[in-house]
Design goal:
Layout lengths: L4 E9 L7 H9 L5 E3 L7 H4 L14 E3 L17 H5 L3 H16 L4 H4 L4 E6 L4 H8 L8 H5 L3 H10 L5 E4 L5 H14 L5 E8 L5 H8 L24 E9 H6 L3 E2 L1 E10 L11 H14 L7 E5 L8 H13 L9 E4 L2 H4 L6 H15 L1 E2 L18 E2 L5 E2 L7 E7 L4 E9 H7 L5 E2 L39 H4 L56 E7 L2 H17 L4 E4 L14 E4 H12 L6 E7 L2 H9 L5 E2 L6 E5 L11 H6 L1 H16 L6 H5 L11 H21 L6 E4 L3 H8 L5 H25 L5 H7 L4 E6 L3 H14 L5 E8 L2 E7 H13 L4 E3 L15 H8 L16 E4 L4 E2 L8 H9 L4 H10 L17 E5 L6 H12 L7 E4 L7 H4 L1
Parallel strand pairs: 4-5, 4-6, 8-17, 10-11, 10-15, 11-13, 23-24, 23-31, 24-29, 31-32
Antiparallel strand pairs: 1-7, 1-9, 2-3, 6-7, 9-16, 12-14, 15-16, 18-21, 19-20, 21-22, 25-27, 25-28, 26-27, 29-30
GO biological process, one term: secondary metabolite biosynthetic process
Organism: Magnaporthiopsis poae (strain ATCC 64411 / 73-15)
Keywords: Oxidoreductase, Phosphopantetheine, Phosphoprotein, Transferase
């Protein structure tokens, strides 16, 4: 059975106040008409008016339905179009480009994600005034005129501009064009010719010629009103506008975490054939098409309660269409439970090429919000429409007449006999009936009151905080209502429809939730957690971007006004039951609007060149921050990022703890590390130990600090990957090389955890051995002897001066050794050795006003003192594997070794000997970073190219411990260009990780 199609985004620009989707629906609910006089910049209506239809070239109607604003306004540079080319473009082409961009934004699909995909474009049109106008002026044609006016470019221009590579088709079947386009798009999706579809329709009234032809043909009504299904029907009134919907297969929309606005169950199209008159609709053809669309998908017509008709307001067409509707549906309805028939043309006129897609957009909004808008201009039904057809033409808004599934039909037919029909269901009940988890905006139980506008504003997509900024599982982000039928959701399962083509119940599969806005009874994954001292609401990131610098301020202003005025919607944050330590935040309440806005701006918006960002925990903080006007910067054209990994010594209790409950990627990475260390026989829990307070923490013990630091660094890499932050190059300081090798894909997580675990465990054993070897004498002497025997110290000197200082200490003291362990920068070294000589060195240098400080380690890493454990270390490491297949970035990061001081064959990283050498040998960090900064990352490319060097550095570790050495090396390596190299750190000591990350 064919898979249903999801509507995931839309844009509406229709006459009068219907210039956005929300305003369009409110306009319809109010029962208003967009009818106005003919604007003077289109044509002089008085010049063409005459009351007699016998007069040629006249237009009896002096009113129609027009867009607000100028149709000439167009931001050509935004679409990479030159002014000369833009001036030759039909405004319908320009309007389609704008509408498609807005529809993709509405769908949460950034342009960079749509580009290059197998996305089809299907545009319906009927007439182009601009094309005819340009042919009248011989001075107008230019090299752009042909492409600027031909109908094929309505779709082709969209495909070119957004780099969409599926089918690109412009369809003209007159009034049914855009609904036929939707039918073709659905077929392409079902046949997998396209992965996504853009369906649009357009119509503009620029000149009088086509209206003259329509009037001469007896199609236009003299009153400038479409009296849909009314006894006064005497022809239609024209309207203009643009409409676009974005479509995907339902399974793909769920997979991608898209908001499903409505579900297209089936579509169809046919032709009247040789009817008595080509311009008159065929009742038989329409009946056949409607029935075929329903039976083809196994759909029950009795569920349908709303029918958006073509309803042009003609004396001939309306009774024929009403008769077809009645013949199909009357047996399922009654006078007390009629089929409600809508007629959009009474509100906005006949949009011709855009009429079908406008009806679809009205239908989507009606299904979502559960209130059927009124028709306008309706006083008395056409006498040829019979009561026994059980049709009702609403003159006031009507709440959806039954609980459970909302289903509707949309009808469209062209003047030449081409018909189209679409059946749609609301997203909430479709998902519930088919036991699917998905995002939607459907209002489960709308309430119709005198203040209609107060109850029809939809909630944001009910994705929940489960997916906010972490994308844990796009398929599991769902609304409570769609997964908790019968709880308090307004979902009626008494007439379950469970498979795409069947009306029989199916077995329930309960989805997994981590964030909902339903009663706690609606989910089974709720736990209580012990209170933490920090606020459970982490700050949220808000990213703003625009094509030009001034545009960022406009975007910020619009968002500020929206946030300040929108009603508050709270969402309980729940966490999964687990045997894990109490690392989850307590249950709390978050303003859902703020959370959803953060997610949308960060993950579901196109990233333009000009950007600004801010963080906030609440809408009040956000409004205050936006009033301060965050700094606007232009994104680098080709940023190249290096990850630098801190070594041991910078650790601190609870480092990164709040990231555990804030982000699933970080949390699950640490949980996996915990489980793996347990399998190696580790007697303590990594996550428990990480979350301890300072008083009870053992983080400074080598046995704990080594594996915990590495596990946190790996978890940070995993988190950054979910944010699509990837390095071009990596380097690690000392044990930081372990996580660096993982980030480069040269170590698997398990191999990295194992290398770090045994490094810490064996180091701890060596410390104990050193202490036990020297015990003896009095109790005081034994206590003194239990202190560390070796250690490390940081020194603010270069290599040569440090060696000179060591030689002076050796000359003064016989016992023990000192050696350079780390060359951090040109003026920073680390010394390892026996504590007696280390203390003497530190004291001597301090007296000479030279920076010197003992480090918080109990052993002399990167020295001969580590050699007693190398054999065991090599044995315990075992086989080492890489993680290259798991890397999702396009190119493998370049690895710079601080053991060797530069590039090495990455195969060496899978050898235990490398990690043994890393433990006992000096760290050549200065050399490695210098080479990293000076290297051309694209040196392997053929031909001439600009040198590609690192532009930004991100330190990954417990603290910004390497900031000083890095700045010093950058200054030396880049000279005057040093300031252009950016530096940031993910974590900072004693600062909340959710803020610094």
């Amino acid at each position: 059975m064919d898979e249903p199609i999801a509507v995931i985004g839309l844009d509406a620009r229709f006459p009068g106040d219907g210039d956005t989707a929300d305003r369009f629906y409110e306009f319809l609910l109010a029962g208003r008409s967009a009818r106005t006089g003919i604007p003077a910049d289109r044509y002089n209506a008085d010049s063409f008016w005459h009351p007699s239809s016998d007069r040629s070239g006249i237009i009896r109607a002096k009113t129609a339905h027009f867009l607000k604003g100028s149709i000439s306004a167009f931001d050509a540079p935004f679409f990479s179009i030159t002014p000369a080319e833009a001036s030759a473009m039909d405004p319908q082409q320009r309007g389609m480009l704008e509408a498609v961009y807005k529809a993709l934004e509405n769908a949460g699909i950034p342009l960079e994600k749509a580009a290059g995909t197998q996305t089809g474009v299907y545009v319906g049109c009927m007439y182009s005034d601009y094309d005819r106008m340009t042919l009248k002026d011989l001075d107008v044609p230019s090299k752009y005129s042909t492409l600027g006016s031909v109908a094929s470019m309505l779709s082709n221009r969209v495909s070119w501009c957004f780099d969409l590579r599926g089918p690109s088709i412009t369809i003209d079947t007159a009034c049914s064009s855009s609904l036929v386009a939707l039918h073709q798009a659905c077929n392409s999706l079902k046949l997998r010719e396209a992965s996504m579809a853009v369906v649009g329709g357009c119509n503009l009234i620029i000149s009088p010629e086509f209206s003259q032809l329509l009037d001469a043909g007896g199609v236009l009504g003299p009153d400038g009103v479409s009296y849909s299904f009314d006894s006064r029907g005497n022809g239609y009134s024209r309207g203009e506008g643009f409409g676009v919907v974005i479509l995907k297969r339902v399974s793909d929309a769920i997979r991608d975490g898209d908001v499903i606005r409505a579900v297209i169950r089936n579509t169809g199209s046919n032709q009247d054939g040789r009817s008595p008159v080509i311009t008159a609709p065929s009742k038989a053809a329409q009946v056949d098409l409607i029935r075929r669309v329903y039976t083809g998908a196994g759909l029950d017509p009795s569920v349908t309660r709303f029918f958006e008709a073509h309803g042009t307001g003609t004396a001939v067409g309306d009774p024929i269409e009403a008769g077809a509707i009645g013949q199909v549906f009357s047996s399922y309805r009654s006078p007390d439970a009629p089929l409600y028939v809508g007629a959009l043309k009474s509100n906005v006129g006949h949009l011709e090429g855009a009429a079908g897609v406008a009806a679809v957009i009205k239908g989507v909004l009606t299904l979502e919000r559960g209130i059927i808008p009124a028709n306008t201009w309706f006083e008395k039904r056409n006498p040829k429409i019979l009561d026994e057809w059980n049709l009702e033409f609403p003159t006031a808004p009507v709440a959806w007449p039954q609980r459970g599934l909302r289903r509707m039909s949309i009808n469209s037919f062209g003047v030449g006999g081409t018909n189209a029909h679409v059946v749609m269901d609301d997203a909430l009940n479709f998902l519930a009936r088919h036991h699917m988890s998905g995002c939607h905006r459907t209002i489960a139980s709308p309430v119709l009151t005198a203040g209609v506008s107060a109850v029809i504003v939809p909630r944001p997509a009910q994705r929940g905080l489960a997916a906010l900024r972490e994308e844990e599982d796009a398929g599991s982000a769902t609304s409570a209502a769609s997964v908790a039928p019968g709880s308090d959701s307004g979902v009626d399962l008494t007439d379950n429809e469970s498979t795409y083509g069947s009306e029989s119940p199916a077995r329930s599969h309960s989805p997994v939730l981590v964030a909902v806005d339903a009663p706690a009874s609606a989910t089974t994954r709720v736990i209580s957690t012990e209170p933490q001292e920090e606020s459970s609401q982490e700050p949220l990131l808000f990213v703003f971007s625009a094509y030009d610098q001034e545009g960022v301020a406009r975007v910020q202003g619009q968002i500020k006004d929206y946030v300040a005025s929108a009603p508050k919607r709270s969402c309980r944050i729940l966490t999964a039951r687990s045997s894990r330590p109490p690392t989850s935040s307590p249950r709390s309440t978050r303003d859902e609007l703020v959370a959803d806005l953060s997610y949308t701006l960060a993950c579901r918006r196109t990233r333009h060149d000009w950007r600004a960002c801010t963080t906030a925990r609440s809408r009040r903080e956000l409004v205050t921050s936006l009033q301060a006007k965050p700094i606007v910067t232009r994104a680098a054209t080709d940023p190249r990022l290096a990850f630098v990994f801190t070594g041991q010594g910078a650790q601190w209790p609870s480092m990164g703890r709040r990231l555990i409950w804030a982000y699933a990627a970080f949390r699950e990475s640490l949980y996996a590390a915990d489980e793996y260390l347990n399998s190696l026989g580790c007697p303590w829990s990594l996550t428990y130990e990480l979350c301890k307070r300072k008083e009870s923490s053992r983080i400074d013990d080598a046995e704990f600090s080594q594996p915990i630091c590495t596990a946190v660094q790996i978890a940070l890499v995993d988190l950054l990957r979910t944010w699509q932050v990837y390095p071009h190059a990596v380097v690690g300081h000392s044990s930081g090389e372990i996580a660096a090798a993982y980030a480069a894909g040269q170590l698997s997580r398990r191999s990295a955890w194992r290398i770090a675990y045994y490094r810490g465990r064996l180091s701890k054993g060596l410390i104990r051995a050193e202490r036990l070897a020297s015990t003896g004498g009095s109790p005081d002497e034994r206590q003194q002897q239990l202190k560390p025997k070796t250690g490390m110290a940081a020194v603010g000197l270069d290599k040569e001066k440090t060696m000179a200082a060591i030689e002076r200490i050796d000359a003064m003291m016989d016992d023990g050794t000192l050696e350079i362990a780390c060359l951090n920068s040109q003026d920073s070294t680390t010394v390892s050795g026996d504590v007696g000589k280390l203390d003497a060195l530190v004291e001597m240098l301090k007296n000479e006003k030279v920076f010197a400080r003992r480090l918080n380690v109990e052993i002399a890493y990167h020295s001969r003192h580590m050699k007693p454990i190398v054999d065991d270390y090599r044995k315990y490491m075992g086989d080492i594997s890489s993680d290259l297949p798991a890397l999702k970035q396009q190119t493998t990061p370049v690895y710079f070794s601080s053991l060797e001081g530069g590039l090495i064959p990455t195969s060496r990283l899978q050898s235990p000997d490398y990690w043994v050498d890393n433990l006992v040998s000096p760290v050549k960090f200065h050399e490695a970073v210098t080479q990293l900064l000076q290297s051309d990352l694209n040196s392997g490319s053929l031909g001439h190219h600009a040198k590609e060097q690192i532009t930004d550095i991100l330190e990954i570790g417990p603290h910004s411990a390497l900031r000083g050495p890095l700045r010093s090396i950058i200054q030396q390596a880049r000279g005057a260009a040093a300031s252009k190299v950016g530096y940031e750190t993910v974590l900072k000591r004693h600062e909340p990780a959710v803020d610094t990350s």
